Fold these 3 entries.
Entry 1:
Amino acid sequence: MAVLTVSTVVEAPAERVWELVGDFHALGDWHPHLPPSRLGNGLAGNAIGSVRVFELPDGVVLHETLLAYDDEARSYTYSFPDGTFHFDGYRATLRVTPVTELAASFVEWSVRYDIEAEHRKDSTERVHGVFTTGLAGLRERFAS
């Protein structure tokens, strides 16, 4: 199993950052390179089992399913179907933690997955790019 973690510090209190990123269906609203998602099933909001669907610029349609949501801990975990971008067992978590001394937030986006060696470099770089770009956009959105 491979693990990838990307993190940043955002210059805003965790409550404010979570107001934006805590909506499972709002990723396309704050990520600079993802389009808005649409509902993929009848479950809206942060209901476990809710599906968000992205139609990516390269023609790929990505279905992500919410597996866990914890408003108090400011985190959620989601997956997408095995075989997507050559990943199996893909489980990603987005978490916002207060940095109390700075009135800021530590934002961590991590993923665990299985992947065949021949696809590891390209697929891992793709996910790393999505996570890095998203967190940089989030940081810029709250920059003073």
Entry 2:
Amino acid sequence: MDFSDLNIQVFRIINDLGKDYPPLNDSAVFVAEYMVYVLALAVILYWFTRTNKNRIMIICSMISFIVAEIIGKLAGTIHSNHQPFAELSNVNQLIEKAVNNSFPSDHTILFFSFCITFWLFNKKTGVFWIILAFCVGLSRIWVGVHYPADVAAGAIISMTSAIIVYVTVPKLSVINKLLRIYEKGEQVILPVNNKSKSF
């Protein structure tokens, strides 16, 4: 069995779960499509704790995502494939999506870039985010819009990017300087006396 066959076989196993357990499909659709709003809300909440650690974490997350997305686009020029529902028969497609290059998974890149960074900065609460990222990746296969290889490539690219950014970016004086400038302006607009504790 070659890699392509294995990729399709694993896709079938996961995607067919939606046929075997229809009551779980709504949850899979929510995670695949709408969990991004939960992530966006978390980013806003972390930022407005107004602690240096959380703000550096969000900055690193954003940079990690940008770097991973660029690498992902480059990877997509080397290898490309359409979504499973466009290439295979009898796919349990649960959400609408335009047919284009699905390699690697952009959703996976987004979630793993942020969630791995969250974990690197806070191992205790970061476990939740790691689980969430894996659930999002799995859900994209479940709803029929990505192959396992699309998700795995996105996760690997994002994890690599997140680790490199975590090791390098917080040490850059320009990042800390720009953050201090921003915080001075923020203090004028939204003054606070005591900074909230990070969570």
Entry 3:
Amino acid sequence: MTSPAPSISTGKTVELRRLAASDSITELTDLLHRAYARLAAMGLRYMATHQSETVTLERIDQGECYVAVAEGRLVGTIVFKEAARTAGSPWLDRPEIASLGQFAVDPGLQAQGLGRRLLDFVEGRARQTGAREIALDTAEPATHLVQWYGRCGYRLIEHVRWSHTNYRSVIMSKPLGPAVTP
């Protein structure tokens, strides 16, 4: 699955596609660290602020990893988990709930629509798999992210404390319409 994209405001054409075996996990991990640096500066210990390449691979293996590529560089990523692989809280344990995670956009391309394209893409994948909703989690203190997800149609469901973080997470979820067939 690939999705050619119109140029974003930087003039770069961005392609969305599944992570390939030839893609660099080092580059992907570096992208995650850069994209989450603002959150780390806020004192939030998201996994992506400090994870190793091994952890990046483990998280990729939990679902389908998609990347955004511009001029041969990885500039965005998102992992989609179908409902059967989504778990961890009362809401996430429901059989009709898919999820997303390890979501990042290069800081130089943030606030230009690429994150929204990645989100729309995995929402489409969730519909294709028959999920009724797609969920995510983020740090409650990252109010800018909570608000952005809210503008994208996600609503607050519950709070969770993960053992690997230093904050309370919010689980947000978005109802999905039926899959659209071409």
